[in-house]
UniProtKB/TrEMBL annotation:
Stretches assigned to the Major facilitator superfamily (MFS) profile domain: 8-383
Name assigned to this protein: MFS transporter
Subcellular location: Cell membrane
InterPro entries in the cross-refs: MFS (IPR011701), MFS_dom (IPR020846), MFS_Efflux_Transporters (IPR050189), MFS_trans_sf (IPR036259), Tet-R_TetA/multi-R_MdtG-like (IPR001958)
Species the sequence originates in: Paenibacillus rhizoplanae
Membrane protein topology class: Multi-pass membrane protein
Transmembrane segments annotated in the record for this chain: 7-26, 46-67, 74-93, 99-120, 132-154, 160-184, 205-226, 238-258, 294-318, 330-352, 358-379
Classification via Pfam families: MFS_1
Transmembrane helix recorded as keyword: yes
Length: 384
C-alpha cells in the first residue's frame, strides 16, 4: 500500500467517523433535544431508530440501483447530501420534519459508509483488503469513543443544533480530499439487477449475514444497557462508569484494527471463530465478574476487543465470496449490522422488563452461541 493510498483510506475513515458521530450523538443530548422540541424523550429516541433503519433499508436499495455508477461520484454525492442535511438541523423545523431529515441523513450516511469501505478495498493489494476495511471500521468505532463524548461536552456550550453544523462543516474536509485523491472507480462489466439478487441465492452469503445479525445482536443486548448493568453489578459511580465506557470504546477501536490485521495474516476463518469464542466466553464470565470490579472491567475490555475484531474479517469474507460485486455484499452486511443493533436493544429491553438487568449476558450469550455454530458450519461446509 503506497503512502498516498494509505492516507486516502484514513480520510475515508474520517468521513465514516463523522457519519457515525451524527448517528449516535443524539444519545448524549437526548434530554436537551426533548426539552427544546417540546416532545418526550422516547420521541427523540425515535430519531436514532429512524437513522438506523434508513441506513439499513434505504441505503442498500439505492446502492443496488447505482452499481454501474462511478463509485467516486456516488461517494461524493452521498457525502454532499449528508452535509446539506446537517445544515437543515439549524432551521427551526417541527419534530416531524426533523424525522424526515434523519431519514435523509441515514440513507446518505449509510451509502457513504458502505461505498467508503468498497473504495478502500480497491485502493490496496488483495492481501491488504482486511486491513483497509479495519481502518474504515476504526472510524465507526471512534465515533462512539470520541464523537459522542466530545459532542455531549460541546453541546453544553453551543447547544445541540450547533453540533450538526460543526460536524457538517468538518465533513467538507474529506469531501474535498476525496475529490482530489480518489480515482474514478467503475465496474468493468455492467451489473444487472438479476446478478445483484443472485448474491442472496448463495447459502454462504445468507449464513454469513445471519452470523452478523446474531453476533451484533448478542453484543447490543448487553452494551445498549451497559450503564445500568455496571451500576447493578458494581459500586462504580456514574463518573467512573463514563471512564470505563471510554476505555471500552478504546478497546473497540483496537479490536477493529487488530481484526483487520488478523484477517489478512491468519484469514477470515481464524479471526471470526476466535472473536466469537472470546465474545461467548466473556458473556459467560460476566456472571462471575461481579464478585470483583477489576475482573468485571477486564472481562468487559476483552468482550469489546473480541466483538469488534470480528467485523473486519466478516466484511472481508463477504468481499471474498462476492469478488465481482463487493459493494452489494458490504451494503447488505452493513444493513444486518444495523438490524443486529435493533435486535439486541429490543431483546435486552425484553429481558430487563421480565427479569433483571443482570441477566442480559445470558440472552446475549444465546445469540452469540448460535452465531458460533453457524460460523463453524459455514467454514466446515465451504472453503472461505
Amino acid at each position: 500500500m503506497n503512502l498516498n493510498n494509505r492516507l486516502t483510506i484514513y480520510i475515508l475513515a474520517l468521513a465514516v467517523f463523522l457519519i457515525g458521530t451524527i448517528e449516535y450523538i443524539i444519545t448524549g443530548v437526548i434530554e436537551m433535544m426533548a426539552s427544546d422540541l417540546g416532545v418526550s424523550t422516547s420521541q427523540v429516541g425515535l430519531m436514532v431508530t429512524v437513522f438506523a433503519l434508513s441506513a439499513a433499508i434505504i441505503a442498500p436499495v439505492l446502492i443496488a440501483l447505482t452499481l454501474n455508477l462511478d463509485r467516486k461520484k456516488l461517494l461524493m454525492t452521498a457525502l454532499g447530501v449528508f452535509i446539506a442535511s446537517n445544515g437543515l438541523m439549524l432551521l427551526n423545523l417541527p419534530y416531524e420534519a426533523m424525522l424526515g431529515v434523519r431519514v435523509i441523513q441515514g440513507a446518505s450516511g449509510g451509502i457513504a459508509t458502505v461505498v467508503a469501505m468498497a473504495v478502500a478495498t480497491r485502493l490496496v493489494e488483495k492481501e491488504r483488503r482486511g486491513n483497509a476495511i479495519g481502518i474504515i471500521l476504526m472510524g465507526l468505532s471512534s465515533s462512539l469513543v470520541l464523537g459522542v463524548p466530545a459532542g455531549t461536552f460541546f453541546s453544553e456550550y453551543f447547544g445541540w443544533r450547533a453540533l450538526f453544523i460543526i460536524v457538517g462543516g468538518l465533513s467538507l474536509v474529506p469531501l474535498f480530499i476525496i475529490s482530489a485523491k480518489v480515482p474514478a472507480i467503475k465496474e468493468k462489466e455492467a451489473v444487472t439487477l438479476r446478478m445483484q439478487l443472485s448474491v442472496l441465492k448463495d447459502s454462504r452469503i445468507v449464513t454469513a449475514l445471519a452470523i452478523t445479525l446474531l453476533y451484533v445482536g448478542g453484543y447490543a443486548t448487553l452494551f445498549t444497557y451497559i450503564t445500568p448493568y455496571l451500576q447493578s453489578a458494581s459500586s462504580l459511580s456514574v463518573t467512573e462508569i463514563s471512564g470505563v465506557l471510554f476505555l471500552a470504546g478504546v478497546c473497540s477501536f483496537m479490536g477493529s484494527k487488530l481484526g483487520g490485521q488478523l484477517a489478512d495474516s491468519k484469514g477470515s476463518k481464524f479471526t471470526i471463530i476466535t472473536g466469537l469464542l472470546l465474545q461467548a466466553a466473556t458473556l459467560l464470565l460476566f456472571a462471575l465478574a461481579g464478585v470483583h470490579v477489576i475482573v468485571l472491567l477486564l472481562v468487559l475490555m476483552i468482550f469489546m476487543l473480541g466483538t469488534w475484531s470480528i467485523s473486519p474479517a466478516q466484511q472481508l469474507l463477504l468481499v471474498t465470496l462476492v469478488p465481482r460485486n463487493p459493494d452489494m455484499a458490504l451494503s447488505v452486511n452493513t444493513s444486518f449490522i444495523q438490524f443486529g443493533f435493533a435486535l439486541g436493544s429490543g431483546l435486552g429491553g425484553y429481558v430487563i422488563s421480565r427479569t433483571s438487568v443482570l441477566h442480559l449476558n445470558w440472552a446475549g450469550l444465546a445469540a452469540v452461541a448460535v452465531a458460533l455454530i453457524l460460523a463453524i458450519r459455514l467454514f466446515k461446509t465451504h472453503k472461505a
